[in-house]
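Reply to dn_fold:

You asked what the input looked like. This is it:
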Amino acid sequence: MKVLGGAVVAFVALSSIAACGDKGSTGSDSSAGPEKKHIKVGLAFDIGGRGDKSFNDSAAAGLDRVKSDLNIEIKDLAAVAGESENDKYSRLKMLCSTGYNPVIAVGFVYDGADAKNGPLARAAKECPTTKFAIVDGGTQADNVADLTFAEEQGSYLVGVAAALKSKTGTVGFIGGCQVDLIKKFEAGFTAGAKATKADIKVLTNYLSTPADACKGFNDPAGGKTSASGMYDQGADIVYAAAGGSGTGVFEAAKDKKALAIGVDSDQYNTVTDASLKPVIMTSMLKRVDNAVFNFVKDYAANNFKAGATVFDLKTDGVGYATSGGQVDDIKDKLDAAKADIVSGKVTVPSK
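and this is what came back:
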């Protein structure tokens, strides 16, 4: 009965949003759109949504640029912790059925357990004239663009930075959920660290699995506990690819007088608590904002492309942050490592 009740509440909430139009949006709206192209862009967030200071906020930044730079109407909708695949499908279906085109799904969760029959696949099939995009997905439908990233390449660079900066010879990696996507971050980070210092020790932990809905992306307490344990084991730098849980990792770094590496956004600039800035040595940048903005820009120019587009170091789809100045003294080595990857001299593993 609790499950049924939750589904009914989710359905009623989505129905109310559809009935009220823009007034029901959980995000930003602009009534002005291009005169010739009446485009309305809808975006569905992953868990954490606006304010996660990481993955979702990067997508939000791209959407906000769509509104300000392209003068296109936008709507974004939040996700709810513990929701079902049907809830995700209903969110996408509501957007396309109320005239939003294109529609962007943020996160692999919109693929569902089976990308061929998951939330996005269902919505794309039932809204064949709507163009969709999914960040980190692989739905592979004729009206879906899969926006993917070479996370392993950016993670390799921060792995190099960690090895160069570590004084103990031990560093750590914390993943939000034990899925192939996050394992790419781990693989790149470990490869970069080992290529720089062969005997460096890399501690690894994942905060959740798909079985518990990947809740580790929004578990700051869990992130703090995991990072504290790594610092106690001798790590002096921990890289967190864990969304909103990264805040807990930063808090642990502060408590232990150690360092941490952020992810997706430049977290030195996005972290709310200014006292955490000094522990954020760098961040692996995943330019979801550019991917979202460029997708909409191309769509507006009638250049929609279905299938996978990969954003890598060569296209500045990934990279590393320099805010705070803590990697300024090794920037030449990081840029040399980047050049080796771009030229093909170094191939970064993704597993």
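The first strand starts at residue 40 and ends at 44.
Hope that clears it up.
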